[in-house]
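So, can you check these tokens?
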Amino acid sequence: MSTSRELIQQLLSTCQRCRRLRRKCDTLLPDCRLCRKAGVECYHFDHALQQSLPRAYVHSLLARLEHLEAVKRTIDGSSDQQDVPRPVLPNTPTSDHPFPHPPPSQPSQVDNRERVPQSVQYDPYLKRDQTDTFDKHFIIPSAAGRSRFFGASSVFTISVELFRHAITTGLLPEGSLDLPISRYNDKEECADTLAIRFNHQAQAESVRELCRFYFVTSNVLYGFVDEHLAANDVEVYLDLRGNPLLNPQDLRGVEAHQYFRVSMMCAISCSTQARHRHRRLVEGMAYYKNALDCVEEVTSEVTPASLQALLLLSIFCLFQPRKGDIWKLLDYACRLSVELGYHTEQQVEVETEAQKRLRRSTFWGLYAIERIVGQLFGRGSDLPEPIITTEYPRSLSAIDSMDQASVQPISIAHHYRLVYLRSEIFRDLYMPADPPQFEFDWYRDRFSTLHLWRQEHLVSDDDLAGPGTISCDVGYNSTICFLFQPLLLVAIRTTTMNRNDSSTDFKAVPQDNYWSACALIRTYEKVIRAPEKSILGAYPMTFLSAHYIYLAGITLMAHALLAIDSRVPILKPMLQLGETPEIGSLDLTNFYEISNSCLILLSFCAERWTGMEGMLYSFKKLSDKIIPALLRRQP
């Protein structure tokens, strides 16, 4: 890698400051010597993108390359060891699809199902000793030479460590851990079949109602569709649908975008409402299939409208992950946003204030989706922070009144700031090829930053709750779990490897992620229990929500395992700590109630999305053994 890095650095052009001053430049990263001495950022001109980029961007790409090469070496090394067992994932597609099931549009579905085994064997993988990294590589048996990567920030990595600990300590029996995998989802197959025969007459009021619903739910979270312009889109869409000779594949230009946009907004709204009314699943698939008729036309040009189309497809995949490749969609959207200059405020064309607001909210909506999806799976980003200069959509000072509708866009803009802070933590904590060992002060400083963010816009009034405020609640508590997950991983692995050694100096772990996991489960419990017509009942529940719920549950189980082990000290809550870490105790009184709530939420997720049964089964398998063991240890 060092030779490759040197060759790449030799290709760096003279930075713009040295060229302007006619000084001799060098190829140091992230800044040349003269720029670093002057205390300014070092920029060079990228001829491919036709814009100036900081050298820090090149530095981040090289760091990412080092990480990927380290991953490749790990995979190559494991493939050379013939005696090392590999985990088996059944019928996993060759694309980086979030779930190990083939999309229903594949031919010969019956044949595919017959080849699906009844269970997944994880025991061999749990016995494999990887002391240098927590990253996991699951070999895909259906595609030779392919594997699925989960980084240390993924909840699946800590799941593996928990199972290995439970087996090693005797909580779970030796032998096969058979995780049942459903052969197919009857509900989804039924929806696909009915959607093909569904003859939607595009009733005007129904379409308008679905579009209104979209703007108070999903568009609050991501904000890349202009509500004022969409009113005209709806009328054009209704006129087109009223034409009995309409063939969507013949649509071109603006009409194609309008037809696609309204169809996708209706499909997303139906997917949001499907958890209350199952028939909406069929309607949503019908709208989606109508939109696909002109998808090539609306994504073939380098325009803001094409970026919007890619984002609509990405949002739909968050609800229906089997209907597209979320990784490719986000990759295309990120590339297109950079090409359009959405990542920077250096706009050449004159923009109105409305266009500026839409551009900023579009970019930060994409940024939030791309970052969160990548971090949940432990994967890097296509939008490095050094090149981003776009302002946040709105500031806290922009709010005129504290009513429910006004608080939501302010809250989601505040959430974008959290995603940026979380990305900085991810870059420092999870991206290096060699996992860093940060001291207590580093974690305390990051926690203080997150807590300060939380206090800046803490909405405690339930009457003001909505998509934006719920996203802030979920984002904050999941980020606390995300921040302290490496410490839990180290503690679980250390106790596993030294199970009979009481003299080992175990590093203390914080308890704040336990309480954040509890708060995360309570938040989703309120959302799931909310009536359909309420604001919380309309909150968009995507497969990301299932990952957050599972993350909270696994965090609870990790703390319970450490409590049963009783060798790892627990710190006092961060807000009670001084300059030095102090040992406290963790009150597990509410553990049983919260774990039961988590089980109910995971049952909902398993019913809602194919592929979530593994999460439910894994959590139930652990809780069935951990809860009795924890009760036996309590006085």
Observations:
- Residues 79-131, 195-199 have pLDDT under 50 and may be disordered.
- The two ends are 56 Å apart (CA to CA).
- Residues 2-62 form a domain with the CD2-Gal4 fold (CATH 4.10.240.10).
- DSSP finds 24 helices and eight strands in the chain.
